[in-house]
Amino acid sequence: MSRQVLRVSLFPLVLTAGMIATLVGVRAGVSPTLVVMATIFASAVPILIAQVVAPFEDAWQGRPGDFGIDLLHMGSTALATEGYRALTVGLFTAAALWLQGTVGASLWPENGPWVFQLGLALLIGDFGAYWVHRGCHRSALLWRVHAMHHSSERLYVFASARNHPMNAILAYGSQLLPLTLLGAPLETIALVSVFTGIHGMLQHANIDLVHGPLNWVFSTADLHRWHHSTDMAESNTNFGSNLIVWDVVFGTRMLPVGRPAEVGLEGVALPNNFLAHLASPFVLPRWEQEPVKAK
Fold this sequence. Notes:
mainly alpha; globular
C-alpha cells in the first residue's frame, strides 16, 4: 500500500473492519466484553504500524518513557469503564423497561438496519458526551478531573488512553447512559464501544492522514489536535468524542491551517508519574505555575 493510499484509506478501513468484526463476534455468541476488547486491541496493530510508516510529526513519536504510563492508564480506564457498566447496566435496563412500559412501545428502533442504529447511537451518545466534555473545560471542578488527559506533550496512539478513571467514567457514562435508557440493544452498545475505542486511537494517532469531507462528520485527528493545544482559545473547541456534528451545531468547531504550536498543559508541571496522575484531581493546583512575565 502506497503512503498516499494509506493516508486516505486507513481511517475508514480500520473503523469498518472493526464494526464488521464486532457484529460477527456478538452474533456468534461471544461475550460482548471480550469482543469489544479484542477488536480494539487488534485494531491498534495497523494504527501503530501506520505511525511508523507515515508520521504526521516526527517530534510526536512516542517515547519509551510514555509507553509505560499510558499503558497503565489504558488498564485503569478499562477497569473503570467495565466497573461502571457492571454496576449500572442492570439499573438502567430496568429504567428503560419502565419507560417502555409507560410509553407503551419500544423507544429504540430495534428493527432498523445495524448501520442506522449505530449512526443514531453515535449521534445521541455524542450529544451527552459533547456537553459533559464542554463542561469539563468550563467548570474548575470538572477540569481537575479532565486536565490530565491534556498532559501528553506528544499526540500519538496511546495518548488516547491517558485518562483519569473518573474522567473515563464521565465520558463513558454520558455517552452510553442515554442509549441504555432508550433501550438500545447490546449489539448496538458493543458497536458504539468499539467505534469509540478505535476512533479514539485514530483521533490521537501521529499519522499523516487525509480526511477531506469526513472532517465535517467525525471528530478526526485534524480537528482534535487543536483541542490539545496549550492555547486555551484553541483547546476550548472541537469537543466531539466521535462526531463533530454537535460542534458544528453549537459553534465550537475549529479547523485552521497547520497544527498547534504546542500541545499539552500550559502552566502546569504535572509529574510524569502514574500515581501522581491518579492524584491530580485532588492536588492539581499545587502544580500550577505562575506565568512568566515578559521583560
